[in-house]
Amino acid sequence: MKGYRPRRSLQVIATIEEEGTAFGMACFGVRVRSGEFKTQQPQDITYLAGGTLADCLQLAELPQQALQLAATGFADVAAFVELHIEQGAELDQQGVACGIVEAIVGYDRLFVTLQGEANHAGTTSMARRRDALAAAASLVLGVKDMAEHDKRFVATVGQLTVVPNVVNIVPGQVRLSIETRSYNDAILAEVRAQVLELLRRVEAESGVTITQSHDFHVAAVPLTPGIAAIAEQAAAQCGVDCLRLPSWAGHDAQIFAAAGVPTGMIFVPSIGGISHAREESSDYQAIGHAVRVLEQTLRTLAEA
């Protein structure tokens, strides 16, 4: 862009903590800018490695009023475009150089407890057992089967606690999590109803009692169709093939979009679909293609 003077100013925003590994809150930096934490004090936000945000600010020689000073909001932002690796395998498998994101998925989390009866593994006949882990296995496989037959969502049982977790005792209790993700909240609501029906069916068939302890929901966020169209046109102008798709992971872009900022997102293929691992990588040529698409997209937006 050497020598280029846009009608609108362009800013590169460096954000922190999209993954939430330091404070346990995803997209923390952008959420601070939004003003979500401006009524809180840094000593009340825990640093997972030990201490608090106040300690981190002191170590970095930043003011303790940082949560308030950084809460500038988004009123001055005409549009936001994020460039990111896909973190999935869709682009890599299809051999497509660039992704245009249409929506960022929401997720629904249920935390349930299966209460059976702990008993001796040798003296308790199979007919007498109320095995909480066996019932949990049926539940896990049921959730997996649901997701495999409906490509509109994905589902994961990623957390499992077995009690008493002893080799010669029939498990009496299992606590587990069920997470479903989709690019549409109506689909998430439909899937939740299916999961609740599955819980009732497993409870009736196994003789264990299933209760919900709590749940958690993050809404799906559609991105701006107009910016997706501009990015798609930019890809065509750059001779880069692209594919429209949802993002199955959360990103800073969803905070901007949820706040009403016109938002777009461009994906670079992830080799092998590997993410959050040392092997995570993207092809340099693909990165170059995406940067060119980003540049052309920003040029168009800056002239609007």
Structure report:
The protein is of the alpha+beta class. 34% of the residues lie in helices and 23% in strands. It has helices spanning 28-34, 53-59, 66-69, 90-94, 132-148, 185-206, 225-238, 252-258, 284-302, and strands spanning 80-85, 98-104, 106-115, 119-120, 153-156, 160-163, 169-170, 173-182, 209-218, 221-222, 242-247, 263-268. The strands form 3 sheets. Strands 1, 2, 10, 11 and 12 form a 5-stranded mixed β-sheet that branches. Helix 7 packs across helix 9 (284-302). It is globular, with a radius of gyration of 24 Å.
Summarize the structure in short:
Helices cover 34% and strands 23% of the residues. The protein has helices spanning 28-34, 53-59, 66-69, 90-94, 132-148, 185-206, 225-238, 252-258, 284-302, and strands at 80-85, 98-104, 106-115, 119-120, 153-156, 160-163, 169-170, 173-182, 209-218, 221-222, 242-247, 263-268.
What descriptors fit this protein?
9 helices; alpha+beta; five-stranded mixed beta sheet; five-stranded antiparallel beta sheet; 304 residues
Summarize the topology.
Layout: H1 28-34, H2 53-59, H3 66-69, E1 80-85, H4 90-94, E2 98-104, E3 106-115, E4 119-120, H5 132-148, E5 153-156, E6 160-163, E7 169-170, E8 173-182, H6 185-206, E9 209-218, E10 221-222, H7 225-238, E11 242-247, H8 252-258, E12 263-268, H9 284-302
Parallel strand pairs: 1-12, 2-11
Antiparallel strand pairs: 2-10, 2-12, 3-8, 3-9, 4-7, 5-8, 6-8
Helix pairs in contact: 5-6, 7-9
